[in-house]
Amino acid sequence: MRHFTLTQLRYFAVVAELQSMTQAAARLLVSQSAVSTAMAQLERTLGAQLFLRNPSMGLRLTPTGRKFALDLKGFLDHADSLFESAYGTAETLIGELTVGVFSPLASFRLPAILKAFEATHPGVDVTFLEADLASLQTALREGRCDLALMYGHGLGAGFSSQVLERVPPHVIVPAGHWAANIPGQEVALRDLAGEPLILLDLPHSREYYESLFALAGVAPNVRHRFAGYETVRSFVAQGHGYALLNQRVYNDVPYSGGRVVPLRLVDEFPPSEVMLVRLSTALPTRRALAFEDTCRRLYGAAHP
């Protein structure tokens, strides 16, 4: 019977992530020769080539290696869970957790979520992967994060999700805009037809905003496109146009100075759903479940 060790598997997971024996050895605090030997032994045991070694291109995973790396993550998570059950009580959690987060959401609730989670589970080392919605789906499929806090726009098949919050869209205009002093601060999207739009231009978010214009029967006059939430707000504050957004920032003064004025939309538009998302085929670790519980507590009861 062929055998491999848990150490070899852990070494492989780090080498697969970093695509470098040298960097993997530095992270693992072992010699490069120890990592190289372990990888060679693992390949012999499996009878398969996991890496392509090219002096000019460096280390690359073979198709077999990529599949093995993806399947291995759940196995190592389960091994950590076994250790946790033997190490302490059901409340004791240790190990690593990687959480994906949609860039515009990162600054709103995430710092408070992490603070609350670390207060309850100080033994868990949490890292974050900040990205757009499309990249987060890829990261989940490739096993580069355990779960993701994101919007549900464009969510493909193969994921399970739970809604934490539904956020309606709103408009922001510069302080000197004609609509800034409207009683009740409500407008219809059609009221802004023809005015220059500063578009938050991120995959799936872009399509969501475009769908709102289509529902209103308005062709947007896109003046500028930006991937940064605060960049969009800054351009609006300086009078370059208006923007359509979801998350409401309580400070109406952006980095550039000036001021933005948020306006409610009277249109009946579908909201953005803030979700916790993970692969439907992945068995969540106790660490991931604990993080999800913290998110639910801070966001309030999850919607059905």
Please tell me about this protein's structure.
The chain is an alpha/beta fold and 304 residues long. It folds into 3 domains: 6-68, Winged helix-like DNA-binding domain superfamily/Winged helix DNA-binding domain (Arc Repressor Mutant, subunit A, Orthogonal Bundle), CATH 1.10.10; 89-163 and 273-299, D-Maltodextrin-Binding Protein, domain 2, CATH 3.40.190; 169-270, Periplasmic binding protein-like II (D-Maltodextrin-Binding Protein, domain 2, 3-Layer(aba) Sandwich), CATH 3.40.190. Helix content is 39%, strand content 24%. The chain contains 10 helices and 13 strands. It has helices at 6-18, 21-28, 32-46, 63-87, 103-106, 110-120, 133-141, 205-216, 229-237, 286-299; strands at residues 51-54, 58-61, 95-102, 124-131, 147-151, 159-167, 170-174, 186-187, 196-200, 221-226, 243-245, 260-265, 272-279. The strands form 4 sheets. A 5-stranded mixed sheet has the order 4-3-5-13-6. Helix 1 (6-18) packs across helix 4. It is elongated. The N and C termini lie far apart (49 Å).
- Structurally, how many domains make up the residues? 3
Taking all Cα atoms into account, the compactness measure Rg is 24 Å
Major sheet, described briefly?
Answer: 5 strands, mixed
CATH class of the largest domain: Alpha Beta
- Overall structural class, as computed from helix and strand content, comes to alpha/beta
Going by CATH, the homologous superfamily of the largest domain would be Periplasmic binding protein-like II
Q: List the secondary-structure elements in sequence, H or E.
A: HHHEEHEHHEHEEEEEHEHEEEH
CATH architecture of the largest domain: 3-Layer(aba) Sandwich
Strand sequence of the main sheet, in spatial order? 4-3-5-13-6
| Number of extended strands | 13
Question: What is the third-level CATH name, the topology of the largest domain?
Answer: D-Maltodextrin-Binding Protein, domain 2
Regions with little confidence, pLDDT below 50 for 5+ residues: none
What is the quaternary state of this protein? Answer: single chain
Average of the residue pLDDT scores:
88
GO molecular function, one term: DNA binding
Pfam family, one: LysR_substrate
Family: Belongs to the LysR transcriptional regulatory family.
Organism: Cryobacterium flavum
